[in-house]
UniProtKB/TrEMBL annotation:
Higher taxonomy: Eukaryota, Viridiplantae, Streptophyta, Embryophyta, Tracheophyta
Keyword Amino-acid biosynthesis: no
Organism the protein comes from: Hibiscus syriacus
Plastid lipid-associated protein/fibrillin conserved domain mapped to chain residues: 72-254
Keywords associated with the record: Plastid, Transit peptide
Protein name per the record: Plastid-lipid-associated protein 7
A GO CC annotation given for this chain: plastid
Length: 262
């Protein structure tokens, strides 16, 4: 899951962790993902979301699913995602259940069951539209995300030729004349199975310098939230949508974007 910068960027080599101020001697192995392992859920036997559009198992043996079915499910899912700010600051449990239910239906009818054998479907730029990763309580306060700093779009660019992923999180600080900035995390990936990739953190940058200074004290906290290191199971991908589940138990939903963020 993917992932030319100006000269004032601060780059952290892969042999060091993202401790910015001051430089420390510890290694990137200190950046450890959580150990909760997610599982891919079976088909949900529900008629909650327009059952007439759900393809039966026996009709899907050849791996072919009706475009109308997937289009309708994706439309319903995107409707559920409206107004929740990608879920980053929490979602009501009922809404979260509805999202999960629709995701399972899409995963069950994944038109690309072997995504790492079809990397052309995975490569390119994607925009995050939902994540079960949340920034709540004291974390949100420490990062200034209640009043001072606003999160913008989340993009991921995957370079399949170089086996690289670039995650770009945009934000602005209202106290600095609406100064825009971004956190960029570069990672490498290796194919682990027909649907899973292993991801390693390489380096990170935060620009411009004014916003780098804002995050100086809590940079490790910020990077710990968005660090992609671990594994990612690609559970659904087509020409416009990608869904994944990682080793930390997070659900990620992305839409293809034409924007070049690298």
């Amino acid at each position: 899951m993917s992932h030319a910068f100006i000269s004032n960027k601060l780059i952290h080599p892969s042999t060091h962790p993202p401790h910015l101020f001051p430089r420390l001697s510890t290694s990137k192995q200190n950046i450890k993902p959580q150990t909760l392992i997610s599982t891919i859920h079976p088909m949900v036997t529900t008629n909650r979301f327009s059952p007439g559009f759900i393809t039966k198992v026996e009709d899907n043996k050849a791996g072919l699913v009706g475009e109308d079915t997937l289009s309708h499910l994706k439309s319903q899912l995107l409707q559920q995602l409206q107004g929740i700010n990608r879920g980053i600051f929490g979602v009501a449990s009922s809404k979260k259940s509805d999202i999960e239910e629709l995701v399972k239906l899409l995963e069950f009818q994944n038109p690309t069951p072997d995504p790492t054998l079809n990397l052309e479907k995975v490569g390119g730029c994607w925009k995050l539209v939902y994540s079960s990763i949340t920034i709540l309580g004291s974390k949100r306060t420490k990062l200034g995300l209640r009043d001072f700093i606003t999160l913008g779009e989340f993009f991921q660019t995957i370079d399949i030729q170089k086996s690289k992923a670039f995650n770009v999180i945009k934000f602005n600080a209202r106290g600095l004349k609406l100064l825009n900035g971004k956190l960029t995390i570069e990672a490498s990936f290796e194919i682990a199975s027909k649907s899973r990739v292993d991801i390693s953190y390489d380096n990170s940058t935060i620009t411009p310098d004014q916003l780098m200074n804002v995050f100086r004290k809590n940079y490790d906290l910020l990077l710990g939230i968005f660090n992609p290191e671990g594994w990612l199971e690609i559970t659904y991908v087509d020409d416009t949508m990608r869904i994944g589940r990682d080793d930390k138990g997070n659900l990620l939903i992305l839409q293809r974007s034409e924007q070049d963020t690298v």
